[in-house]
Amino acid sequence: MVLKIHSGVKPETNEQLLLRGLAENDAKAIETIYKDNFKMVQAFILNNSGSYDDARDIFQEAMITLYEKAKSESFVLTSQIKTYLYSVCRRLWLKRLQQMGRYVAQSEILEETIAVEDDIAIHEKRNADFAIMDRAMNSLGEPCKSLLESYYLQKKSMHDIAADFGYTNADNAKTQKYKCLMRLKKLFFSQYNIGE
Amino acid sequence: MEDLQLLDAIERYLNGTMLPEEKKYFQQLRRNTPEIDQMVVEHRLFLQQMDLYAGQKELMHSLNEVHNDLVEKGDIYEGGELNTKGHVIQFWNKYKRTIGIAASIAGVVALGISFLVTQLSPATTKSDLQELSRQVKELNTKTNVLAAEFKRNPKIPEKPTYTSGGTGFLIDRKGYLVTNAHVLKGKGVVVSNSNGPELSATIVYKDDSTDLALLKIDDENFKPVTSLPYAVKKSNFDLGSEVYTLGYPRNIIVYNSGYISATAGYDGDTASLQISLPANPGNSGGPVLNKNGEIVGILSTRERQAEGVVFAVKAKGIYQLLEDLKKNDTTYQNIKLPASSSLKNLDREQQIKQVQDYVYQIKVYN
Predict the structure, then answer these.
(1) CB pair distance less than 8 Å for A25 and B58
(2) Structural domain of B35
(3) Nearest to residue B169, comparing CAs of B180, B156, B185?
(4) What residue ranges are annotated as transmembrane (chain B) (predicted)?
(5) Which of A63-67, A165-169, B84-88 has the lowest mean pLDDT?
(6) Under an 8 A CB cutoff, do A194 and B60 touch?
């Protein structure tokens, strides 16, 4: 779903740059967005029976949602980052409160929020996939886990990996990587359903 | 191994590093062999998932780093004294000079006062607390028997007489361990984890005022670890949150769990926190982890009068220790504390399995 253009506010090009930075995992962009928006979210969560840790969790969750959005090719900025993050955090937190069985007083909405349900649904699916990969990775054990992380996450060359792990040559490291990869794929696909 | 080569080819085909002729041949093969075609489709999906996983993992890491940074700088307030620290820094930058002059006057006065206080005050209240380091005399016989089984480590003396001991944990891949300063009542240190031989270590830094110390394993049998599963938490934590510890009150690793019962330590000490958890001599220096696998403290003392009242130095102290160290010596610039935990969402048993190899028994001799 395409978000409606936020009332009267023209998206600034500066925000576009920040979002592109976020999509590329640029530390400076992340820091700027973090600094500009965290306090507002923290205040909201603390005022609604959350803790400092909750605020951190929820805000980072929203940042990941924004990151996923910024990364997708079809992404068009249709609201301010501030409005977007606030809306996602608000939705996520109210949802969590409900899950904990707390009574949520739906305050009359004085703040501007936008519809983010679709994005959150996509994010939740993404989170589930992430958790499957994470569990599969973590149940691999060592040295498989570190070996695959070096190759697929840190993008190191087989040559460097062989040196790091003490294999005598890159071919032996490759054989080991293959065995680990097969195990990982098996673990991953036993949880992940291709059919859906 | 044929399968290996096939998968290797698929991977090169998918990431576009295949040569044109090879690619042509491979596409032909794909068309003619449904099994291989299926493998390519499956592997593409897998690699996509892997890429997304890698991206998100990296982002989570950056987010945590940025967060901790902003807390440190005082841009984010998380309760407690952290904020004041941020303000202090800002304040300091503003009034550096004036403070300098004032501080030197204050320093002289304070020295005079503290001299008077130490002269006049009654015996210390320290005896209310019991340090959890362990008298390891009884260990000597056992370790001597064990030592005979292992190949002798030339750096460790033939028959060391251990004077004290405790627990420590790795904070850096290259063998830096954190423990309590009071654990180290001697010059030489031997460390071992639950499945390795004894390794020699040196004392890098020891600060009795914060009761923290840094050790470096300098043994050739020590292999740098690839990554640490836990993070060291800089910011504050919530009263009542669940914590656990691993340590060596005996010769094997022992697990215990409890909760944070106060956010300040003995006598209002804000650098530590109070935990309700069973601990014994030998637990000193052990990591205190929360449910997300983040280290929140270093177990240090317990109250003699009360059962289950234990104090831990806040993990923030480790950051300060490193800062102090880096100021004085550039060789330690590369020590980097693990900022994100890969243990989140794992159940306790899994967490322990991953953490225990990085928790070491520490024995000290003269």
Answers:
(1) yes
(2) 2-71
(3) B180
(4) 99-117
(5) B84-88
(6) no
Q: Across the interface, which of B45, B63, B346 has its CB nearest the CB of A30? A: B63
Question: Could B63 and A60 be called an inter-chain contact, meaning their C-beta atoms sit closer than 8 Å?
Answer: yes
Non-local (6+) Cβ contacts of A64 within 8 A are A123, B56, B59, B60, B63
Of the candidate CATH numbers 3.30.1310.20, 1.10.1740.10, 1.20.120.430, 2.60.120.230, the domain formed by A13-115 belongs to 1.10.1740.10
Using CB atoms, which residue from B42, B63, B236 is nearest to A63? B63
Same-domain status, B95 and B150: no
Contact A129 B49 (CB under 8 A): yes
* Mean pLDDT to the nearest integer, A168-181: 85
In a domain, B215, yes or no: yes
pLDDT value of position B22 = 83
Given A39, A146, A175, which is nearest B226 (Cβ)? A146
* Domain CATH code at residue B266: 2.40.10.120
Nearest CA in chain A to B67: A34
Q: Which residues contact B129 (CB under 8 A, 6 or more apart)?
A: B266, B301, B302, B303, B304, B311
A51 neighbourhood in chain B, CB within 8 Å: 238
> What's the DSSP call for residue B358?
G
Q: How far is B150 from chain A (nearest CA, A)?
A: 23
- Residue B77: inside a domain, yes or no? no
A71 contacts chain B (CB < 8 A): yes
For B331-346, what is the mean pLDDT? 82
Please enumerate residues of B whose Cβ is less than 8 A from a Cβ of A: 1, 3-4, 7-8, 42, 45-46, 49-50, 52-60, 62-67, 69-70, 75-79, 223, 226-227, 235-238, 241, 342, 345-346, 350, 354
CA-based nearest residue in chain B for residue A177:
B4
Counting residues of chain A whose pLDDT is more than 70, the rounded percentage is: 84
Which run of H or E residues covers position A70?
Answer: helix A52-71
CA distances from B26 to B13, B37, B38, B40, B91 (A): 8, 10, 13, 11, 67
* Average pLDDT over chain B, rounded to an integer: 79
- Quick one: average pLDDT of B283-296? 91
Q: What's the number of domains chain B is made of?
A: 3
Query: Do the chains contact at B69 and A25, CB–CB below 8 Å?
Result: no
- What is the rounded distance in angstroms from the CA atom of residue B32 to the CA atom of residue B35? 9
**Among candidates B227, B249, B208, which has minimal Cα distance to B293?**
B227
